[in-house]
């Protein structure tokens, strides 16, 4: 029995090309002391993975050439090594690799309350890091206050689709999204609770639109994109505005540094604050993350929090599916299903 | 008796030129209801004034063409209008104009505990907005913690010279400045409590120097300058770093927007925060500002807080003196003495 892997064989320059990954079948790994063998069921296609592929890494160390690509997964424990504090059959999420099986210390995984009939893919999304990112970023990092006007870039993306809804649930006075294309903007309004969504591809001037739609300015900006959208938003901050910077997907593929916003002076003029954040900062606090997930589960069961998962099938398709992240050819959180759970 | 004024006759493009101001003698103003007539004794040459001269203003409205230039002053009440809650002879600071006399509502001035023998110029500096800016920006906005490593750009400038000393008084583990030229750097270390000062004009690579001098990274960045210095500093943040943006003097004279820092991604990677601030945000809280000034006065009397004021003489010299701000030909806070107090 072999373990298939997608290996990083070449550091991509700009967009990912087919030759950047190589399939390699290796021996089945065996869990050592404190380790577990996990069967990979679902792999999340995250923008951050693109950063791991660069020689400089991003918030995590760069992926070595010749190593399987890393990413968030939902898996099932198949075998446990001596002293590993997890049990066979349990479902877990955490960092895995683009492989059929993963061996890693039990301590790096989070057990989820699920069985083979649960919506397992949702643990790589709204019930996992994406849901926590939206919740933590908006309410804690962004210091959300009821009555805030909220602007969210990447409004129809995985995180943005949840941020808009949570802002409405928590009493935002106006929630505006920015997204690319009429279909995505429509979805932001119809499905994800946005009062309005600006199509940045429409050719209309973004500053003019923001002036019209948010004449009182932005109290809270949830920034997923960076680049020129971020720069325009900085021109429309309300006094004491708060900005939570979640990621800057528009820059993940940039080979060279692009110029940053030339108008940071607005932070002084508006006495505004910017906070960068990583969801990993709170994952160690189990009580807090459990409380957040409890709220999220309640909102889902009450029908107030919708989520879309775009599940693609099959190990072989992973590199092609990953590229969809940057071309925009997906609806909601992009996931690859690698295997069915063991019953 | 005439009142001399320096009038903005032309909006400067880039550096200030002699034709941008015109001297105009006007009739002595008379205080109306609730107003006071103030004799201008000292005028502070602030970088922010350069922003008022632009058509777009900065945090304050743009100065109209034909109006006297605005700026912080220390003055003395000469006459009071009906109902004005100030007394003749009192010393006050607040916004005035580049004039011999100013009439304005009494409510816009702050009374200082001083007499004609006091160090009156210090109320436009360490005992006024500059001292409060350093205190508030470092301790409150920057959320200073004992043991922090602190980096201050514009270290030998008016604000920066105080920030370094306050950081040491409050228990910073290491205080590093950035300044331009060996003389200024020497002063930052000899007079203003800096452990080290980087000369950005030395030609050495700033990133390399920061790596060497702050290998553990910057816990708190007090940013006075912006531009390429700010960008380099962003590459050296410690985890959970805090940045207080006080001003960006390197951009005041820029006719066109310069590109901003291309590496804001570091804010995410280091889960750092940036806060822009204006000292005006706290001036309304008299109890708090009085408490801050009390600490400042104690530190001065204990010999722990030094300040340098570069006083130039004479109303006629104001435009030339103002230009010194940007050419660097001054030592410490740049002030013009317009008149002696009335005894």
UniProtKB/TrEMBL annotation, chains A, B:
GO terms for molecular function: oxidoreductase activity, acting on the CH-CH group of donors, NAD or NADP as acceptor. The lineage of its organism: Bacteria, Pseudomonadati, Pseudomonadota, Betaproteobacteria, Burkholderiales. This is NADP-dependent oxidoreductase. Residues 14-336 form the Enoyl reductase (ER) domain. Keywords: Oxidoreductase. It comes from the Bacteria. SMART domains: PKS_ER.
């Amino acid at each position: 029995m072999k373990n298939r892997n997608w290996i990083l064989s070449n550091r991509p320059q700009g967009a990912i090309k087919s030759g950047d990954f190589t399939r390699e079948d290796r021996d089945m790994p065996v869990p050592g002391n404190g380790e577990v063998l996990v069967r990979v069921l679902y792999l999340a296609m995250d923008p951050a993975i693109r950063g791991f592929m660069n020689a400089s890494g991003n918030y995590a160390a760069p992926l070595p050439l010749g190593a399987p690509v890393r990413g968030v997964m939902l898996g099932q424990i198949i075998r446990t090594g001596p002293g590993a504090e997890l049990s066979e059959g349990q479902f877990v999420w955490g960092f895995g690799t683009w492989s059929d099986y993963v061996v890693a210390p039990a301590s790096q995984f989070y057990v989820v309350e699920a069985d083979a009939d649960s919506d397992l893919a949702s643990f790589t999304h709204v019930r996992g890091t994406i849901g926590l990112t939206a919740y933590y970023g908006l309410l804690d990092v962004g210091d959300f206050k009821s009555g805030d006007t909220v602007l969210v870039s990447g409004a129809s993306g995985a995180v943005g689709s949840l941020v808009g809804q949570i802002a409405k649930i928590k009493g935002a006075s106006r929630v505006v999204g920015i997204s690319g294309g009429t279909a995505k903007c429509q979805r932001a309004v119809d499905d994800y609770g946005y009062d309005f969504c600006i199509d940045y591809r429409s050719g209309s001037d973004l500053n003019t639109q923001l002036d019209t739609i948010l004449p009182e300015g932005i109290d809270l900006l949830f920034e997923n994109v960076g680049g020129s959208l971020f720069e325009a938003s900085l021109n429309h901050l309300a006094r004491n505005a708060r900005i939570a910077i979640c990621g800057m997907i528009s820059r993940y593929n940039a080979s060279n540094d692009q110029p940053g916003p030339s108008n940071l002076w607005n932070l002084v003029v508006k006495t505004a604050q910017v906070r960068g954040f990583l969801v990993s900062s709170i994952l160690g606090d189990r009580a807090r993350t459990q409380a957040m997930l409890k709220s999220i589960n309640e909102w889902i069961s009450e029908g107030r929090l919708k989520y879309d998962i775009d599940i693609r099938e099959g190990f072989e398709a992973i590199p092609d599916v990953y590229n969809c992240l940057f071309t925009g050819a997906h609806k909601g959180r992009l996931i690859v299903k690698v295997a069915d759970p063991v019953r």
